[in-house]
Structures are given as structure tokens and as C-alpha cells.
Amino acid sequence: MHSGEGTWIYGGFTEVTSWSSYVEGFHREHAGITEDLLSRATDADGSTPYGWLGAPIARSSPVVDVGCGSGPTASSSGSWIGVDRSSAELALAADRGRGPLVMAGSHALPLARGSADAAVAAMSLMVVDDPGTTLAEVARVLKPGGRVAVLVPSRRPLRLADLARYAALLAVLGRRGLPFPHPDLAHRLIELLAEAGFDVLSDDDRRFECPMTTPEDHARFVRSLYLRGIAPRRVALAGQLVRRWARSPLGIPLRRVIATL
To answer: How far apart are alpha carbons 82 and 91 in whole angstroms?
Structure first.
């Protein structure tokens, strides 16, 4: 992971911070943004990303959600435990009636060895400090035969119109890709799971469509991006670009991997 110091522009001011500090500030200001975006996205069958992710572990109990955010996977099982280091996200999860909730980092889960039937990591592995350490911790707290369901951004499947939109967005932002600390995670995920002791049961990519019809839709999408180091001028240009997408939904490609110990 890139853990050095860097300059980023956020909320109208500039400061030097690590990626971890940036993520903390991002989720403090935009708690629930990932759920607010993805819960509005659906696939061809009408499923949301969270429904798709939770389906293979629906009968597991308890389920630990690593980097749970506002807790959108809480309905995936009858017994669910959310773990996150963001107090703002956990407060929102509590307001939405989800719990129990634990404040902790993913590198040291406050759970006993072999205490969970399953785990989920929904759009969190690409922003944790060390995905390998996180997956090793997940393996520690799972029972033998336990499953983990991981959801991460993907690059497929996308339509030509989607590809053109993302290319234009990255050009406006001055980036080759979105600035996650682990932009290559989708390519390394199977390897990292194997290193943590997991066997992959399924590995699927799916395109979800998110409506882009209102000004709030446009603003929500831009806010949801981790735009560390992007100048306000470029962020404003990105907002102008996204507002031109109102005629059709935006394709969001996601990858779901299910693995077992």
C-alpha cells in the first residue's frame, strides 16, 4: 500500500495527509455515500450489488462485515456484526437500525478465532491499509469451511457507451484510473485469497445500472469517488461532465468472489 505523505485538496483546503487519514476524513464528511450510490443500482434481474453479494451466504450465521460502512449488508443473514473504523459510518449504521457494531480496523478484528460462519467485504478491500492482512484476519475469525464474499470494482462487463463515459471522466480528472491505494486489487484478489488459505468457489463480474437523471444523482456519483489529490477545478469539470449523462443510466462494473477455507 502507498502509506507515505501526500498533498490532497478536500473541502476547500489543502493539507498533507496519509491515505488512511484521507479515507477517515472522506467517510466522516460523506458517511453512507457508497450505500446511497450502490443501493440505487440494479442488474438485469433487478438485484442490487448488496443483494448479489449476500446471496451465497444468506444462510450463514453469524456473518462479520469487514469495513461495514453504513451497514448495507446487514440483511444478508439473521446474525450480523459490522466492523468499521469510521465513527461516522457506524453512527449512520446505528441510526438505520443495524448492529451490533464494533469500531476497529480490519488489520486486527476484535473477534475470537473461529467465531464466524461467514464474512463479507463490500467495496472495502481496495481502500484498507493492507488487503492481505485483512484477508488473513478474516481467515482467522472464520470457522473451518467458512465463506467470505468479496465485492470490488471491476473493469467489465461494460458497454461501449460506458467505456466512453469513463474515459472522458478520467481525462477530465487527469488520471489513468481512480486513485485507490490498491488499483490492481481486482487482478491480485485470487492470489491474496490463496495466500490467506482460501479456495475460490466462484468469481463473477456483473454490470449494474445506476440512474443519472437528477442533479442529486450526478452529485452523488462524483462525491462517491475517492478523489485524493484532485484539484477543485478538475472536480468541478467532472461534475459538469456527469450532468451530461442524464439520458441513460451509468453502467457500474463489479466483481464478486466467493471463497471458503
So the answer is: 12
215-224 and 232-242 are packed helices; what angle lies between their axes, rounded to 10 degrees? 140
Domains identified in the chain and CATH numbers: 6-157+181-209+253-260 (3.40.50.150)
Taking the CA atoms of residue 151, residue 152, residue 153 and residue 157 in that order, the dihedral angle to the nearest 10 degrees is -50
Label the pairing between strands 250-260 and 199-210. Answer: antiparallel
**Residue 161, phi then psi, degrees to nearest 5:** -65, -40
C-alpha cell at 139: 481467515
Is-above-0.70 flag for pTM?
Answer: yes
DSSP per residue, 167-179:
HHHHHHHT-SS--
Overall residue count recorded for the chain in this entry: 261
Q: Does residue 157 have a cis peptide bond before it, meaning omega lies within 30 degrees of 0?
A: yes
Would you state the pLDDT for residue 2? 29
CA angle 89, 93, 99 (to 5 degrees): 125
Compute the Cα dihedral for 216, 31, 2, 64 and give only its sign.
negative
Separation in Å, CA 96 to CA 15, 58, 99, 220, 236? 33, 20, 9, 19, 31
Q: Tell me what pLDDT residue 17 has.
A: 57
Lookup: cell for 219: 452529485
Distance CA 36, CA 99 (A): 18
Q: Which residues contact 249 (CB under 8 A, 6 or more apart)?
A: 209, 210, 211, 212
In this prediction, residues 158-187 reach a mean pLDDT of 89
Q: Using one digit for the tens of pLDDT, what is the confidence trace for 78-108?
A: 899 999 999 999 999 999 999 999 999 999 9
The stretch 234-258 carries a mean pLDDT of: 94
The single-letter DSSP state of residue 42 is B
Gyration radius of the chain's alpha carbons? 18
